[in-house]
């Protein structure tokens, strides 16, 4: 949710980088979204197309890499892919599992001219 | 064509403002609580119950967040609890700048505790640090026992979980064991309280926990 405020913040970060890094236009914006960030890439791309108008990112594509959810075994510290819910550790067989994911959404790189 | 590597958090601006809030609260020795839940879990009712008890040991102010109306702040003022109402007119969460603005109109130097009741929403508020010391997620028995599985972020980010409306347990399909297992899977350290605003079950224990937290904070 609130993809609009995220898209606006992306443009704000880009404009700030344009000042310091001296580029003219942005072609690609690459984003990393943590597994618990609740960002929907489709919605974000949709609103990004609206807010990028008239900026140096007017023609930019948004590439969002959403990290998969992981689980951590509290007994043997093994980290494995999984969803939130009952699970068994692939290493030690324990069911004492917890979520291992973050809520961060960050711009990882810009491809610019 | 040039590739510029960055590591820019899109919530970075809010985080900066939240940290500024946190410094302001620390300077004034104010313990701040952020309460998050779905609409209708009973956040305002809980504050109505714990507010007068907290007032016996702390000067408390409540910041209410809703999309529209002054209803919740007025309910608290009617009980003698000072309250500010933020009406977001559309925003689905409170953010650090809204809290800074709301509290700029209050004499915070006179306060010991601020309770923020966030907009009813179990998704978006979890991403917005307000500068709080403690985050409480409230669920109610009428919402089912799989809330922590459906909305893990809210429980993962909270310090305390309150399962409210326990007086309705005989009438609803809610297993407290399943609920607690789900909450602990999202967050091993979460402390869970069971409450009812109708019978007052659990209210004293929750207040005592907040009193302990305030004491610990005051001694830091």
Protein traits:
heterodimer, A: 113 residues, three-stranded mixed sheet, three-stranded antiparallel sheet, 2 helices, elongated, B: 220 residues, alpha/beta, seven-stranded parallel sheet
What would you report as the Rg of chain A, rounded to the nearest angstrom?
18 Å
Spatial extent as radius of gyration of chain B: 17 Å
Mean pLDDT of chain B: 95
Low-confidence stretches of chain A: none
Overall geometric form of chain A: elongated
Query: What's the overall geometry of chain B?
Result: globular
The largest beta-sheet of chain B arranges its strands as 4-3-5-2-6-7-8
Helix fraction bin of chain A: 25-40%
- How far apart lie the N and C ends of chain B? 52 Å
Along the chain, the helix and strand elements of chain B come as EHEHEHEHEEHHEHEH
Q: Taking strands numbered 1, 2, ... along the chain, how are they ordered across the largest sheet of chain A?
A: 2-1-6
Please tally the β strands of chain A and state the result: 6
Number of helices of chain B: 8
Binned strand content of chain A: 25-35%
Strands of chain B, count: 8
Fraction of residues in β-strands of chain B = 15-25%
Give the number of helices of chain A.
2
